[in-house]
Amino acid sequence: MAKSLESEHPIKAYGYAAHDTTGTFSPVTFSRRVTGEKDVRFKVLYCGVCHSDLHYAKNEWGVTTYPVIPGHEIVGVVTEVGSKVEKFKVGDKVGVGCLVGSCRSCESCSSDCEQFCPTQTLTYGVPNFDGTQAYGGYSDHMISDEHFVLRWPENLPLDSGAPLLCAGITTYSPLRYFGLDKPGMKVGVVGLGGLGHVAVKMAKAFGADVTVFSTTAAKKQEAIEGLKADHFINSRDEEEMKAAASTLDGIIDTVSGNHPIVPLLGALKPNGKLVLLGAPEKPVELAAFALILGRKIVAGSAIGGLKETQEMLDFSAKHGITADIELIPIDYVNTAMDRLLKSDVRYRFVIDVANSLKAE
Amino acid sequence: MANSLESEHPIKAYGYASRDTSGVLSPLTFSRRATGEKDVRFKVLYCGVCHSDLHFVKNEWGMTTYPLIPGHEIVGVVTEVGSKVDNFKVGDNVGVGCLVGSCKSCQSCTNDLENYCPKQILTYGSPYYDGTFTYGGYSDHMVADEHFILRWPKNLPLDSGSPLLCAGITTYSPLRHFGLDKPGLKVGVVGLGGLGHVAVKFAKAFGAEVTVFSTTPAKKQEALDGLKADHFIVSKDPEQMQSAAGSLDGIIDTVSATHPIAPLLSVLKPDGKLVLVGAPEKPLEIAAFSLIMGRKIVTGSAIGGLKETQEMLDFAAEHGITADIELIQIDYVNTAMERVLKSDVRYRFVIDVANSLKAP
User: Fold this and answer.
1) Rounded to a whole number, what is the distance in Å from the CA of A309 to chain B's nearest CA?
2) Cα angle vertex B343, ends B341, B349, to 5°?
3) What is the pTM of this model?
4) Rounded percentage of chain B residues whose pLDDT exceeds 90
5) Which of A61, A103, A249, A295 would you mutate first to test chain B, the one with the most B CBs within 10 A?
């Protein structure tokens, strides 16, 4: 297996991969394609650890092909560009998020919504457009078609900005699409983790009055003082939930554990929107009346298109929005995954790839 | 009980009421208030039989106070107006739908969305401003605040137009609110009953390409030939459903029986909307991924405000939209209810009240 990984492509690469459903990572040598005419090649500096990486490493969604090299919050510096690349040059700081390919011709692609393209290529874990596997940012370098490379804004930190490439766009996009980005709107955020803490920052930057819902009462101080949320509600406290009834224009629900959504619907005003970003294992249950009485919406959202991702990065740079991170060397990744499972991180691990990943 | 109802108000009235959870309706003498300065009093000509009437007479929603006189698709002719009534005079044809009161000051009321007012007063079964209960259109006459009276368009038939007062607004409103009223959009309608058949007519009038989903293959001809739907899909046929995957901009789901909605979500395009207007008894189950992938929406809708109801009636008159009805005598109503339960009607019963309800 290792032999074919190394010889799959002409350019040697190395990284950390999971090989089976234990999800345990270990060093791996593999290979990447040569720089095509529209490709941008870059040395990986930092890569955020997204909870999706953990799901993929353990094949919890049943779509993983092993070995899997995750990582889709990747920031680096360009080392080579193809002959037809127009927007980037060697030395530029760039990012790659969750997508490295799409058909570029369907209705979704033509309206800058590559995330809905039925033949999209994810950055890792599934076959690339040439039939080989795509490998993500827990590796020494990346190569990607120019269209899927983001320009890194000058004053956006490379390390604490990396998680924006997934957590950032995943929360920014629905705030904008569902019209929750107007000053004075009352927006709820459920769950204070990798997605949730960024959602609070984005919503505050849009001028919203933000309420954090959490099952962990201890998070109140961080929510209010650290993240500048306006209110904090313990979602398991019936009285606090009752007091919030019919007050919110929208709620961004980042929680991936199973949890009841009917109380959250109760917190919405008429025409309010509950947007699910986390994907609980069990189906959510709701009585149709909870939607009918008040014309409320339950929707979902996943990342965003490339154009919007760039817009989000520029917005974050302008408003000083970064993730709260814990920088780790790559050989800490298995411990990081264990801690992530217990939500023991404030709020995203970021791998200091360039300084810790050594060639074999 | 009969005595106190008769003396509750100064003006004698009579109708058909259910007295217990058997839901059986029988003649009842009761009373209505005198015509207040802002009231419009009218003789009932026709009243549609809505499935909600059946839910209420049997107390299936746990909200019923007996005796209950249902009927909220009421058309009649004005017999008296209060001194401060501006918009109606004796002899006018008018309608009353599902609401006869609201707070008139909340955000919903001031936005012409009385149907989302937390203090809305239903046409039957609700406490009125004076604390007495409201009684609906299975009765000889009605009295209502001018604000809740609809002007009956000249060329709209009184009998086959009456179901528009509930079924019409319930389907018209979400088609407009969720942007499914643009020519060329692909709209699905689930269920071909009282709501469903009117939904098809409105969607066609808006210029949509309409697909009817039904569990009854026998309804195909009525859907295509009778109602001019463009496509018909048997929703229990996986192959037919698969062929429609990702094809619709929106779906109006009128079915009140418990049914799976995951197959309906897969028929939506990205950003597609599933609007529930029927209220199944069991909670729905939705896998979060089915919303997240494609940013799809599940929502609900309930009737509409008074302004929009008037707009809907005028639109229906302009486009020749009426319900397909079976006109019945009021003493047929118990049989009619049993047939409604079995969906044995094409597609709404309408009670010929004036010609069949006799004073006791």
Assistant:
1) 16
2) 90
3) 0.94
4) 93
5) A295
